[in-house]
Amino acid sequence: MGHQRLLSKIATNDKHGENSPYFDGWKAYDRNPFHPTKNPQGVIQMGLAENQLCFDLIEEWIRNNSKASICTPEGVHLFRDIANFQDYHGLPQFRKGVANFMSKARGGRVKYDPERILMSGGATGANELIMFCLADPADAFMVPTPYYPAFVRDLGWRTGVQLIPVHCDSSNNFKITREALEEAYREAKQNNINVKGLIITNPSNPLGTTLDKETLKSLVRFINEKNIHLVCDEIYAATAFTTPRFVSISEVMLEMECKKELIHIIYSLSKDMGLPGFRVGIVYSYNDDVVSCGRKMSSFGLVSSQTQHFLASLLSDEDFIDRYLEISKRRLAKRHSFFTKGLETVNIACLPSNSGLFCWMNLRRLLKEKTFEGEMKLWRVIINEVKLNVSPGSSFNCSEPGWFRVCFANMDDETVEVALKRIRAFVGRETNNGKRVELKRWKSINTNKLRLSFNSRRFDENVMSPHSPMPHSPLVRAT
Amino acid sequence: MRLLSTKATCNSHGQDSSYFLGWQEYEKNPYDEILNPKGIIQMGLAENQLSFDLLESWLAKNPDVSGFKRDGKSILRELALFQDYHGLSSFKEAMVDFMAEIRGNRVTFDPDHMVLTAGSTSANETLMFCLAEKGDAFLLPTPYYPGFDRDLKWRTGVEIVPIHCSSDNNFQITESALEQAYEEAQNLNLNVKGILVTNPSNPLGTTLSLEELNLLVDFISGHKNMHLISDEIYSGTVFNSPGFVSVMEVLNNRFSDADEAIWDRVHVVYSLSKDLGLPGFRVGCIYSENDTVVAAATKMSSFGLVSSQTQYLLSAMLEDKKFTRKYLVENQKRLRRRQKMLVSGLEKSGIKCLESNAGLFCWVDMRHLLKSNTFEAEMDLWKRIVYDVKLNISPGSSCHCSEPGWFRVCFANMSEQTLKLAMKRLKSFVAELSSSSDNGDNKAHQSKRKSLTKWVFRLSSRDHRQRDQEER
């Protein structure tokens, strides 16, 4: 077609992943967003892994630290130096602050070297950057399922890298087994695919679980043997709110023989601190060449110096950070407990989890057919009838139908109550009637229409309120 | 199996070039008025440091913007959560107005056709990803910004083929040069996807003439699937006539809105790094009437969004039209004055510049100081200027200039005193050069050259810290 040759293949293929059917959920939410007073019958956004529980702490800190801004009278004397600062090494105080924060999030059990910290445009940019450094087009990275949907875009869209799923299932709580790794690796080899590494998310999105030390050690052994890279996306590190405690790959490296040059960490402040708008992505590599090359690449997504300066100040306030981490943990634990207990009252179980901003909810018994079609049907009912935007397991490439990721940290307590009430009512109906509530209403919606064209989503500032999460473009909401 | 990617181990990032090596020397021995008055003066940095006071005074008058407040209320939550790749609409609206203002309101822009990116570094790379791929090439007039080698080629696989411009006609782009470049691309088996120009030009400091703009538009019109990218990052730095004419004005005047065939293939890149002097804030944008490009680039901007707090700060600032108008006028005045200072300072040393009307630098003609009309001689001269005269300026070869002897010298990133000192040093150097050549005394020069060669050897090893200032 004309456009095919006018533009690049990348610009015209759909490897950005945004044509996935599961964006229907966003659409429903956008058309009819919940608001406790203005639209109490609206769709509640539970597909957005945001951490909205601790803004009050940061707001208080800001009030007491006006020098952290380069715009205030107290801070403006630094304005020109900061505004002029575009060095891709990043502000030293910023790197130090990040290294310190990362260490605290790991209970001080590991120390990070600020010289190895690279900036990027959010974890989105960081994941793409590490791929550009480690792999060539058509190379592959193995990734355990279920995984964050936007990995398809972040790891593969412009890089040309392919993803090889490593299948995990509920028989062992979705743990990554050596067998699964070997099988995925073997199959790739048979198909002449060059596997360059394995990428894991720990704590896991969407599972909300952390990897145990034994599993981590077995992963390190695996990559050592195969001489491939291990990329650990630890973006949810500080969201671990209960035992078992979070074990970082950095800790494991201290306890075993390993080829350091194969190990890399991806981090961000988007989840732990709830600051996705500030676009703070971090690549931390134990490989000197990757640090050197990655640093040059970070030119394509440096963190705004205004933001670096602000965060340098925030993150170097040791007392504040200690307090923040402790309170955040407590609030997440409380919210998680409240939500999961609420689900338990209607016999809905979630995968036992200790971290993350979501639960991995088991709705298998509510499926009419134990297939992915069955899952999609149930999902549309949940969106259109129950009016909750949750994320179906298939969008995470889960190998078994019936699982749903439900976020709980992006709303206030009242909204959680409303959501639970609706779920209880729905499950009650399903169970009592013994059959599906007839979905005359949703049948009339043409559920076969899956294409979406998001030509101009405008950020409508009027919709914002402290209660309802903000409307976002579909892909960034895929977090 | 190779451990890292090809990209990680090649050097298409271009950072082994002399352009970046000059930085390194500066870093080892940076000039400071008080602490290191004999240090190297940085004249290789196209930064605009002349008008910060105007920004600072605006901040003093607008305290709400700081501290994440609007109308006295905290908007931290709102900003902290805002990661919509469509960008803050108030910011985009302010940006399009600012861009229109710079163009004398002869063109208007639609915020829905703007894509925000992390600096123009990211904008340019993103456009490449959208318009071209491995096996394709973009034609660029020489001399051009050294960073393009990295921004356009490195991770995209796209090639650059130079359009050779010469001092014969003040480095203007000619039809024959264009045709020649196109042919060269064919010979290299590359598919030409477009032309990229910087207007006003870096490193020339000149605006493209109407003639050149029409030539470019005609050229791409005449070729199927060919694009024209106009990097207008210096558009607000035009301080003298002839004024700035954007490619968008040319299109406006020549074609109707319905002429999709041409509107779909012209794209503008902009940034606040030069006009406002805010390179640290990473604010760039792509502007295109091609909906598919906008859609694809918007998705790609996920890899480098502009920090929400920065978008908020700048939307407030740029919405203040009284301020922006005043700023643009005053900034241009200061640039004009500063450029004059550099030009007359160079004249006192018998050195001429290409006559310029824009930018943060001059394109300086030192051909008469070369020992021979070669790039080796240019390198020799450059090393002497860095080491002996202690000025970091950028040699033309790093900008891919086809004739040796030209240097880019920046004037807006230092105080007046520092500039005057730089001119003084240059004057002594030139005087020394002419007196020593009169005396035929080459011994001192030879031994200096020997140690310089050793130095180059050391420099070219890769285990030193290389610093890239992102600058143009």
What attributes does this structure have?
heterodimer, A: 479 residues, alpha/beta, Aspartate Aminotransferase, domain 1, Aspartate Aminotransferase, domain 2, seven-stranded mixed β-sheet, four-stranded antiparallel β-sheet, B: 472 residues, 2 domains, 13% strand, globular, disordered C terminus, 1-aminocyclopropane-1-carboxylate synthase (chain A)
Topology at a glance:
The complex is a heterodimer of chains A (479) and B (472).
Chain A: H1 2-6, H2 9-12, H3 24-31, E1 44-45, H4 55-64, H5 79-84, H6 92-104, E2 117-121, H7 122-134, E3 140-144, H8 151-157, E4 162-166, H9 178-190, E5 195-201, H10 213-226, E6 229-233, H11 249-255, E7 263-268, E8 280-285, H12 288-297, H13 305-316, H14 318-344, E9 349-350, E10 358-362, H15 372-386, E11 388-389, E12 391-392, E13 403-407, H16 413-433, H17 440-444
Parallel strand pairs in A: 1-11, 3-4, 3-5, 5-6, 6-7
Antiparallel strand pairs in A: 2-8, 7-8, 9-10, 10-13, 12-13
Chain B: H1 6-9, H2 18-28, E1 41-42, H3 52-61, E2 69-70, E3 73-74, H4 76-81, H5 89-102, E4 114-117, H6 119-131, E5 136-141, H7 148-153, E6 159-163, H8 175-187, E7 191-198, H9 210-221, E8 227-231, H10 247-254, H11 260-263, E9 266-271, E10 284-288, H12 291-300, H13 308-319, H14 321-348, E11 352-353, E12 361-365, H15 375-387, E13 391-392, E14 394-395, E15 406-410, H16 416-439, H17 443-459
Parallel strand pairs in B: 1-13, 5-6, 5-7, 7-8, 8-9
Antiparallel strand pairs in B: 2-3, 4-10, 9-10, 11-12, 12-15, 14-15
Helix pairs in contact in B: 5-13, 6-12, 14-16
Explained architecture:
Chain B: Belongs to the class-I pyridoxal-phosphate-dependent aminotransferase family. Chain B: Pathway: Alkene biosynthesis; ethylene biosynthesis via S-adenosyl-L-methionine; ethylene from S-adenosyl-L-methionine: step 1/2. Chain B: Homodimer. Chain B: One of its GO terms (biological process) is ethylene biosynthetic process. Chain B: InterPro entries: Aminotransferase_I/II_large, Ethylene_sulfur-biosynth, NHTrfase_class1_PyrdxlP-BS, PyrdxlP-dep_Trfase, PyrdxlP-dep_Trfase_major, PyrdxlP-dep_Trfase_small. The complex is a heterodimer of chains A (479) and B (472). Chain A is of the alpha/beta class and 479 residues long. Chain A folds into two domains: 21-55 and 322-428, Aspartate Aminotransferase, domain 1, CATH 3.90.1150; 68-316, 3-Layer(aba) Sandwich (Aspartate Aminotransferase, domain 2), CATH 3.40.640. In chain A, 40% of the residues lie in helices and 12% in strands. Chain A is built from 17 helices and 13 strands. Chain A has helices spanning 2-6, 9-12, 24-31, 55-64, 79-84, 92-104, 122-134, 151-157, 178-190, 213-226, 249-255, 288-297, 305-316, 318-344, 372-386, 413-433, 440-444; strands spanning 44-45, 117-121, 140-144, 162-166, 195-201, 229-233, 263-268, 280-285, 349-350, 358-362, 388-389, 391-392, 403-407. In chain A, the strands form three sheets. Chain A has a seven-stranded mixed β-sheet with strand order 2-8-7-6-5-3-4, sandwiched between helices. In chain A, helix 7 (122-134) packs parallel to helix 8, helix 7 packs across helix 12 (288-297) and helix 14 (318-344) runs parallel beside helix 16. Chain A is globular, with a radius of gyration of 22 Å. Residues 435-479 of chain A have low confidence and may be disordered. By secondary structure, chain B is an alpha/beta fold. Chain B has two domains: 6-52 and 333-432, Aspartate Aminotransferase, domain 1 (Alpha-Beta Complex), CATH 3.90.1150.10; 64-324, 3-Layer(aba) Sandwich (Aspartate Aminotransferase, domain 2). In chain B, 43% of the residues lie in helices and 13% in strands. Chain B has 17 helices and 15 strands. Chain B has helices spanning 6-9, 18-28, 52-61, 76-81, 89-102, 119-131, 148-153, 175-187, 210-221, 247-254, 260-263, 291-300, 308-319, 321-348, 375-387, 416-439, 443-459; strands at residues 41-42, 69-70, 73-74, 114-117, 136-141, 159-163, 191-198, 227-231, 266-271, 284-288, 352-353, 361-365, 391-392, 394-395, 406-410. Chain B has a seven-stranded mixed β-sheet, with helices on both faces. Chain B has a four-stranded antiparallel β-sheet with strand order 11-12-15-14. In chain B, strands 1-13 form a two-stranded parallel sheet. In chain B, a hairpin with a 2-residue loop joins strand 2 (69-70) and strand 3. In chain B, helix 5 (89-102) crosses helix 13, helix 6 (119-131) crosses helix 12 (291-300) and helix 14 runs parallel beside helix 16. The longest helix of chain B is centred in the last third of the chain and has 28 residues, at 321-348. Chain B is globular and about 65 Å long. Residues 447-472 of chain B have low confidence and may be disordered.
